[in-house]
Design a protein that fits this description.
The complex is a heterodimer. Chain A is an alpha/beta fold. Chain A has 2 domains: about 5-270, no CATH class; about 375-430, no CATH class. Helices cover about 20% and strands about 40% of the residues of chain A. Chain A has helices at about 10-15, 25-40, 55-60, 115-120, 125, 135-145, 375-385, 390-405, 410-425, and strands spanning about 5, 45, 65, 85-90, 95, 110, 150-155, 165-170, 175, 180-185, 190-200, 205, 210-215, 220-230, 235-245, 250-255, 260-270, 275-285, 290-300, 305-315, 320-325, 335-345, 350-360, 365-375. In chain A, strands 3, 6, 7, 9, 10, 12, 13, 15, 17, 19, 21 and 23 form a 12-stranded mixed β-sheet that branches. A 10-stranded mixed β-sheet of chain A has the order 5-4-8-11-14-16-18-20-22-24, with helices on one face. The longest helix of chain A is centred in the first third of the chain and has 17 residues, at about 25-40. The termini of chain A are far apart. Chain B is α/β, with parallel strands linked by helices. Chain B has a single domain, classed as Rossmann fold, CATH 3.40.50. Helices cover about 35% and strands about 30% of the residues of chain B. Chain B has helices at about 40-50, 75-80, 95-110, 120-135, 150-165, 180-195, 210, 230-240, 245-250; strands at about 1-10, 15-25, 30-35, 55-65, 65-70, 80-85, 90-95, 145, 170, 200-205, 215-220, 225-230. Chain B has a 6-stranded mixed β-sheet, with helices on both faces. A 4-stranded antiparallel β-sheet of chain B has the order 2-1-4-5. In chain B, helix 5 packs parallel to helix 6 (about 180-195). The interface of A and B includes residues 377 and 382 of A.
Chain lengths: ~425, ~250
């Protein structure tokens, strides 16, 4: 790779300084592969098409250190983020036994990934089997340097009722935090998961999570990701899901935080009669840059995928949406629908939207629509004529725009929490 | 309550003059009907009263409760009791009527130095209003006007009016597009809200609404001016003769 396609960064030497002793050979191999791939791909410049709108220059210039364990005392109590029975805290990428509460639940394993590597033989088969780290330099970096993470396993037929809440807290400055999440839902199992990424105060870290999800036949999983880190943070994530026949996966990405946030979310529909939702709500303000790349990969016939991305952009913020849908030759009778709507609240706000449909089957229904708009005066005047002040009218209209996606989330506790966070992000008093 | 003196207004976008010297005086408790052909300026007048920014006042004054209305923001007018029932109510997906109205009521209460209504108080309050107007309770949970029929939208305007308890109600062609049943419901709603301290300015093209909401005064607006005023019999005369017989009168003004 020519030098002009990558920035100089200290991440390679950070890797060189790491050593993991007495790990299983398969993991040592994965780390070596990650190390090699990251050194090869480096930190891409905008000349690399996949990173065209994700400026990484400032990220590359930071003198990153490897992630240390979190502090004993937080500046903000992270337990406020959880309210249901099963809650897991990962502090600086490490499973926190003191904060986490995982009551015994039929069919559910929810434990430190580090422990699972030694105690659960199946982890060797699954870890790294979905994430394509050869296409993602930061996922390669994660593979080389992750210390811990989370392993969620649902036994065949397990129906886990309470939401599994996963709170990723990052604390400190200039550290690379690399949580690794592995979710395996065996046949006929079901669960709801919410992952929240938050910062302890104004921490300035680089979070590079890799989340791998496997759904076996007839598994049903709702998976929400809330990225709400401080605006001094970087978050570059890879989230990949493999679905088997007749499974249903509903994924919601809610991106509010990080100064620079980039998510690559890929879902492989690898059997018949699969249902997939891949939705997003993005709110960017100030000088935030939030970039979401999604890919739905239809490999087999008779599958339905729905994607709605709603993006609100204010001040000088930039939002990027790249939505790929691949329909392979065998994937006849595919029904794929993609909608991408952006609401610009300031003349200096930017949206780069790129739907990308590649269809190789002939009997399919694929639609996409992208719109960019502003708050219309007729709406605003209607609300003001009822006495609602202009700023509040705007906030309510913006809220309603985003709420259309949040309303799809089936779990009430999660939905209400996200709605409150949305109010907060938009500066509305949510007691109304 | 409302004094309009020699009001001239233009469309802000193209400077076209729409109102050319309106004079109108409305006292507490009175119902005034403003009638006129298409393009006469009657909807412009209604929208100017509510503060729509598409128009600019070039001459004259609007005084409401001894204050200069023209200087106020739309929300300020609402806080002081002005209400416009829209000809084309706006659909707001994702915002329930209850949420919307509670935000409106509490904004008004805050502006007037009153404490906000709690969620429970407010629910009790609007359920009474639903009952008063004989509406269905599902109206409260539905998104504002989303997917409403023409008649439902107009009924919702009257419902909002009932909840906000305005002093000056301006109805902009509330009868347009309504069948006779919807028209009667809307009229019954308005009549239920008539009171000594509350005045109405009803803008309409047709006389039929005035069979159900009987006005104290009828004004005929043509070419941006009121060319004739009278009592309810003037509306019947218009129904019979159309607007043609007034052309000469309009030209002479």
């Amino acid at each position: 790779m020519s030098k002009s396609l990558v920035y100089e960064s200290g991440l390679g030497s950070l890797l060189a300084g790491l050593s993991f002793e007495k790990e299983p050979q398969w993991l040592a191999d994965l780390r070596a592969k990650g190390n090699e791939l990251h050194n090869k791909m480096g930190v891409p410049t905008p000349r690399n098409e996949e990173w065209k709108y994700t400026p990484l220059r400032s990220l590359a210039s930071v003198n990153w250190q490897s992630g240390e364990p979190g502090p004993a005392v937080f500046s903000q109590d992270p337990t406020n983020y959880a309210e249901t029975a099963i809650r897991v805290f990962l502090v600086n990428g490490r499973f926190d036994r003191n904060l986490s509460e995982v009551p015994a639940t039929a069919g559910l394993t929810c434990m430190s990934l580090r422990d699972a590597i030694y105690e659960k033989s199946e982890v060797a088969d699954y870890l790294g089997s979905v994430a394509k780290i050869e296409d993602h330099t930061f996922a390669a970096l994660n593979s080389a340097c992750f210390v811990d993470g989370l392993f969620i396993h649902l036994k065949a037929g397990a129906m886990v009722e309470p939401v599994i809440e996963v709170i990723h807290v990052t604390s400190g400055d200039e550290m690379v935090i690399a949580p690794r999440i592995l979710v395996v839902a065996e046949e006929n199992s079901s669960a709801k998961i919410i992952e929240q990424y938050v910062s302890d105060g104004e921490s300035k870290n680089l979070t590079i999570p890799v989340t791998e999800v496997i759904l076996r036949k007839h598994a049903n999983v709702e998976h929400v990701r809330l990225q709400d880190e401080s605006e001094t943070s970087y978050n570059v994530s890879l989230w990949e899901t493999l679905q088997d026949e007749s499974s249903e996966y509903r994924a919601y990405n809610v991106a509010f935080g990080a100064g620079l946030g980039r998510l690559d979310q890929n879902i492989y529909l690898n059997g018949r009669n699969i249902v997939t939702r891949l939705d997003g709500v993005v709110v960017a303000r100030g000088e935030q840059i939030l970039d979401n790349h999604t890919k739905l990969d239809h490999a087999m016939p008779d599958c339905n995928s729905f994607e709605i991305y709603k993006q609100i952009i204010d001040d000088k913020a930039t939002v990027v949406f790249n939505g790929k849908i691949f329909v392979h030759q065998d994937a006849q009778k595919t029904d794929a629908k993609q909608t991408n709507q952006a609401l610009l609240l300031s003349p200096d706000a930017t949206i780069n939207s790129k739907p990308q449909l590649e269809i190789f089957a002939d009997d399919v229904k694929c639609t996409h629509g992208a719109t960019v708009g502003q708050i219309e005066d007729t709406f605003r005047f209607y609300m003001r004529s009822r006495g609602i002040p202009k700023a509040e009218a705007d906030a309510i209209l913006v809220y309603a725009f985003a709420a259309e996606v949040l309303e799809l989330i089936s779990d009430e506790v999660v939905r209400e929490r996200l709605e409150k966070r949305l109010y907060k992000k938009l500066g509305i008093d949510f007691t109304v | 309550m409302l004094e309009i003196k020699n009001l001239h207004a233009i469309v802000a976008e193209d400077d076209k003059e729409i109102l050319r010297g309106i004079n109108l005086s409305v006292k507490p408790g009175e119902v005034h009907a403003i009638m006129g052909p298409n393009g006469s300026g009657k909807s412009t007048l209604a929208n100017i009263l509510a503060g729509r920014e598409d128009y600019e006042i070039t001459q004259g004054s609007i005084t409401y409760l001894d204050e200069d209305l023209a200087d106020m923001e739309p929300e300020e007018r609402a806080h002081k009791g002005v209400f416009l029932a829209f000809q084309y109510p706006v659909e707001i997906p994702g915002v329930s009527n209850t949420y919307f109205l509670r935000a409106a009521v509490n904004a008004k209460r805050t502006a007037n130095g009153e404490s906000e209504m709690s969620s429970m108080e407010f629910m009790k309050f609007i359920r009474e209003k639903v009952k008063l107007l004989g509406l269905k309770e599902d109206l409260l949970t539905r998104s504002v006007n989303e997917g409403f029929s023409g008649g439902e939208k107009k009924r919702n305007e009257i419902f909002q009016m009932a909840v906000l308890e305005p002093t000056l109600c301006v109805l902009d062609e509330t009868d347009s597009g309504l069948d006779i049943d919807a028209l009667q419901t809307v009229a019954a709603g308005v009549n239920a809200l008539r009171s000594e301290g509350r005045s109405f300015v009803i803008v309409t093209h047709y006389q039929r609404l005035l069979n159900y909401i009987v006005p104290d005064f009828v004004h005929i607006l043509m070419d941006g001016r009121i060319v004739k005023s009278g009592d309810k019999s003037l509306a019947l005369e218009l129904e019979e003769k159309g607007y043609g017989w007034l052309d000469d009168l309009a030209a002479s003004k």
